[in-house]
């Protein structure tokens, strides 16, 4: 997340948290713990954006989807090859959340926020081939349960979710995310792919390959 998007991100996530908590209360649901089985998968298709819809900063939805798909198309053969040669080792894919895993800027008030479908398809494919899926986000810890509920609700297999608690809130985003990838490696995983839409999601190592989704010079957080 860039400084120029911080205020928008704060307003958006606060509104999302309030709406999500309200929705969960109304439905009589609670956020699923990490050990719980994921609910039946739904995808971004359940709440599609209208063709040509713009995000918070005027990014065209259809263009964004095509650009995301182009990155996923490059990543898929690599994931296929890499998961075919796990050789008994635990493999992981690490993802950012906002505008990487979830269509946050296009559906910032939607509950649940729809998945970025090409990324969802890739991660479910990787998971079917034995890779565990981890999410490392700069969202604050107060959004932990709501975020995990959203991810599971739209169909993501969640092997782990990292949000920022104290003292992480005072660290640079790239430093925090690098440290969390190192924690995943310390659990015995090889991170075969790290996917995000900002350089702060991807710098610092602790991943064999990185795949950057479009952010259009910071227009998508």
Sequence stretches where pLDDT stays below 50 over 5 or more residues: 1-51
Helical fraction:
25-40%
How far apart are the first and last residues' alpha carbons, in Å? 5 Å
The CATH architecture is 3-Layer(aba) Sandwich
> What is the global morphology?
globular
* Biggest β-sheet: strands ordered side by side in the sheet: 3-2-1-4-5
At the first level of CATH, the class is Alpha Beta
**Cα-atom Rg, whole angstroms?**
16 Å
Describe this protein's structure.
Keywords: Signal. Pfam families: Acid_phosphat_B. This is Putative secreted acid phosphatase. InterPro entries: Acid_phosphat_B-like, HAD-like_sf, HAD_sf, TAT_signal. It comes from Streptomyces olivoverticillatus. By secondary structure, the protein is an alpha/beta fold. It has one domain: Rossmann fold, CATH 3.40.50. Helices cover about 40% and strands about 15% of the residues. The protein has 6 helices and 5 strands, in the order ααβαβαβαβαβ. The chain has a 5-stranded parallel beta sheet, sandwiched between helices. Helix 3 links the parallel strand 1 (about 90-95) and strand 2 (about 130-140). Helix 2 (about 60-85) packs parallel to helix 3. It starts with 5 loop residues before the first helix and ends in a 9-residue tail after the last strand.
């Amino acid at each position: 997340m860039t400084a120029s998007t911080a205020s928008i991100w704060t307003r958006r996530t606060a509104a999302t948290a309030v709406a999500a908590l309200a929705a969960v209360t109304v439905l009589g649901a609670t956020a699923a713990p990490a050990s719980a089985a994921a609910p039946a998968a739904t995808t971004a298709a359940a709440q599609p954006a209208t063709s040509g819809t713009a995000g918070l900063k005027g990014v065209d939805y259809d263009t964004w989807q095509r650009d995301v798909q182009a990155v996923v198309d490059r990543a898929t053969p690599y994931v296929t090859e890499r998961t075919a040669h796990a050789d008994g080792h635990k493999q992981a894919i690490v993802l950012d959340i906002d505008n990487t895993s979830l269509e946050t800027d296009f559906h910032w008030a939607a509950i649940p926020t729809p998945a970025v479908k090409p990324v969802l398809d890739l991660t479910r494919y990787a998971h079917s081939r034995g890779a565990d899926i981890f999410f490392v986000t700069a969202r604050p810890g107060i959004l932990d349960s709501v975020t995990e509920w959203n991810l599971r609700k739209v169909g993501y297999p969640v092997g782990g979710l990292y949000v920022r608690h104290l003292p992480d809130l005072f660290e640079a985003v790239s430093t925090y995310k690098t440290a969390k990838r190192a924690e995943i490696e310390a659990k015995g995983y090889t991170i075969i792919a790290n996917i995000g839409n900002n350089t702060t999601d991807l710098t610092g190592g602790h991943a064999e390959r990185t795949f950057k989704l479009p952010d259009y010079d910071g227009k998508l957080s």
